[in-house]
Specification:
The complex is a heterodimer. Chain A is α/β, with parallel strands linked by helices. Helices cover 30% and strands 17% of the residues of chain A. A seven-stranded mixed sheet of chain A has the order 4-3-2-1-5-6-7. The longest helix of chain A has 13 residues. Chain B is α/β, with parallel strands linked by helices. The N and C termini of chain B lie far apart (68 Å). The chains are: A alpha/beta, B alpha/beta.
């Protein structure tokens, strides 16, 4: 995973609440068996509307999505994160994220920063006043800056550390191989086994 | 173990503590052991790819099982799958299962079906275990007193490689449902009412524990319906303490513990219910006596009301976000505030999905439609949750009841719950669905979904408009 410290890019205001993963990437795009190339699938239904924010010239090349509350609810599809990432988003800011989506994001190097409602409104106002404006997201200091506006965002310490270091989860866990083996040695016989087939 | 705190604990805490491989320190997560990993074709291909790239094997093939469900056709299952991308995804799973040695139940096999129907029917789902799957509705298995939750593809790869997951402890919410359900009201109505009460994000960060006399009185199928939709309240998992109903359901299933193992298991399972005095981070109460059949009117599962009610007026909503979401939902759903739900006509009825496709669900649907004819012009699909459920239903003659009614009797799979296979709504079509999500376009682009119970779905199929079984009784009386 690529390390993330600080990123500056065009901010995209997505002024909708409860954007669920079926909107981020409709189920029809889940049939692919690759892990990349989902950029066309991002908000596929909404992008058919020429007025949709991603279709506006000013926001082309946007990399910081600024979304309404409860972003990423619904299905556990990690494709939602891949689609955002493949499109070019490095950061999503919102006042609230769905749990599974946020967990998935952290594993793919997509920063999900929680800001207060006041900050969200202020960023939206700043972006709309000057479409195409850049936002700087600093993971080290957990701050976001748009012009004169500077505010902090929330992300948990562990996810932040992994993103800053670009650490792979499986590699980290395999450092605990001894403890896993010990746990398995004392695991009760009644617990389920799929094999042999009965 | 020394890590177990000396204080009253909840069911969720007990299961968590007993799966602790490494206790996280300094803000890092706990490492939790996974007893059962369910795999399907949609969220696994990239995970197997990751293993291959790193040269890693599947650590515990004996704790892993795969089935084909999301993409599978429900008609002509002996023919090659027409949709090329669906076929690729299924063939990819078959190749991966073969290469890594994972047990797979393919289309045509009698254990094939929706992953959350297959686990319990094989007796692999049992109390006190941890279950994961790359599917948010894994919460279903919590009905057994297991801790079960959906994970993303990176986590699927992680579990395949290590049989563990790094996880932060969840908060706990007790949802107590006391009383007795009226006739025509069922488990689905309980969970729809709970989600309407706490909101589609009300459970966020929590493991929900459903308890109280109304929950105790439910069958395992009903409990699965409730835990299944915990995710629709935003929760990571839902759980119900195991009891005699649970033990009776698990006993003698193909993979249930046997002999001395069974006795040891039951003795342990009896220790799992939350201790007296255990503290929850939040508590919610629902009165089962007063509950009416429930239905959603909007595009998130929290937008629900009693079927006897009317479409709410967004202008009266205090929260501006809620108001905006409601306005948008009503526009998408093509519904006007103040309309009686029972005046809403439907084009289709879908009876199926991991929420409501088990044998009891089919029996409930059949109990209403038996001897009747579906409303003209309404398309009615009945999709069993697994090939085994289909066989059971046919042995009871339910297939005949459905086809005599005018419904289509299909093969097992996720089907029109999310329309990854050809079972989709056409744009603008309105459907009463026993599934779990009413998101925009979920059942097909432009499709409009009203989430309901099997009993309401059945009554709706009879009348062609949203209806409860009691409306049919009234009809019979009038006719008489």
């Amino acid at each position: 995973m690529e390390k993330f410290t600080r990123h500056t890019g065009v901010g995209v205001p997505l002024k909708r609440s409860a954007v669920d993963t079926d909107q981020i990437i409709p189920a029809v795009y889940l049939k692919r068996v690759t892990k990349t190339g989902f950029e066309d699938a991002l908000f596929a239904n909404w992008r058919q509307d020429p007025e949709f924010v991603l279709n506006q010239d000013a926001y082309r090349g946007g990399s910081v999505l600024v979304a309404g509350p409860d972003f990423g609810t619904g299905s556990s599809r990690e494709h939602a994160v891949w689609a955002l990432r493949d499109y070019g988003f490095r950061v999503v800011l919102s006042t609230k994220f769905a749990d599974i989506f946020r967990g998935n994001s952290g594993k793919q190097g997509l920063v999900t920063g929680v800001v207060t409602e006041d900050v969200l409104e202020a960023i939206w106002a700043a972006l709309e006043a000057d479409p195409g404006r850049e936002i700087t997201v600093d993971l080290e200091t957990r701050t976001v800056a748009v012009g004169d506006l500077q505010a902090s965002f929330e992300i948990d310490d562990y996810t932040r550390w992994r993103l800053l270091e670009g650490l792979d989860d499986i590699g980290l866990t395999l450092r605990s191989e001894d403890q896993i083996a010990q746990f398995e040695a004392r695991r009760e016989a009644w617990r389920p086994r799929t094999l042999p087939v009965r | 173990m020394s890590t177990i705190p000396d204080r009253p604990r909840t069911l969720a805490e007990k299961v968590w503590d007993d799966h602790l491989v490494v206790k996280g320190e300094g803000g890092s997560p706990d490492l939790i052991y996974i007893d059962l990993h369910l795999v399907h074709e949609v969220t696994s291909p990239q995970a197997f790819d990751g293993l291959r790239a790193e040269g890693r094997p599947v650590r515990r093939l004996d704790l892993t099982i795969a089935t084909e469900d999301h993409n599978t056709p429900t008609l002509e299952i002996d023919k090659p799958i027409a949709d090329l991308t669906s076929r690729t995804q299924i063939e990819t799973l078959r190749r991966n299962a073969e290469e890594f040695g994972v047990r797979l139940h393919s289309l045509g096999d009698k254990e094939q079906g929706i992953v959350h129907v297959v686990g319990p029917q094989l007796g692999l789902t049992m109390p006190g275990i941890t279950v994961v799957c790359g599917d948010s509705h894994t919460s279903t298995h919590g009905a057994f007193g297991a801790m079960a939750f959906g994970i993303g593809t990176s986590e699927v790869e992680h579990v395949l490689a290590t049989q563990t997951l790094p996880l932060k402890p969840f908060k706990t919410m007790a949802i107590t449902v006391e009383g007795t359900l009226k006739p025509g009201v069922s488990a689905k109505d309980i969970i729809l009412a709970i989600i309407a009460k706490i909101g589609a994000n009300g459970g966020q960060g929590y493991v929900l524990e459903f308890r109280g006399s109304a929950i105790r009185a439910l069958s395992m199928e009903g409990r699965m319906t409730i835990c299944n939709m915990s995710i629709e309240a935003g929760a990571r998992a839902g759980m119900i303490a195991p009891d005699e109903t649970t033990f009776a359901y698990v006993k003698d299933k193909p993979h249930a513990p046997q002999g001395a193992d069974w006795d040891e298991a039951v003795a342990y399972w009896r220790t799992l219910p939350s201790d007296e005095g255990a503290v929850y981070d939040a508590e919610v109460f629902l009165d089962a006596d007063e509950l009416e059949p429930f239905v959603t009117w909007g595009t998130n599962p929290g937008q629900g009301v009693s079927l006897n009610g009317v479409i709410p007026e967004p202008a009266e909503m205090a929260d501006p976000n809620e108001r905006a979401a409601a306005e948008r939902a009503l526009e998408y759903m093509d519904l006007a505030p103040g309309t009686a739900l029972k005046d809403v006509a439907v084009d289709a009825v879908f009876m199926g999905s991991c929420t409501n496709s088990r044998i009891e669900d089919l029996r409930q649907f059949a109990s209403i439609v038996a001897g009747r004819t579906k409303a003209p012009g309404v398309r009615v699909m009945v999709v069993p949750g697994s090939a085994r459920v289909r066989l059971e239903a046919e042995a009871e003659g339910l297939d005949k009841v459905f086809t005599d009614f005018g419904a289509e009797w299909r093969f097992a799979g996720c089907s029109m719950c999310l329309g990854m296979n050809p079972d989709q709504l056409a744009p603008g079509e309105r459907c009463a669905s026993t599934s779990n999500r009413n998101f925009e376009g979920r059942q097909g682009k432009g499709g409009r979904t009203h989430l309901v119970s099997p009993l309401v779905a059945a009554a709706t199929a009879v009348l062609g408009r949203l209806a409860s079984p009691s409306d049919l009784d009234a009809l019979t009386l009038t006719e008489a």
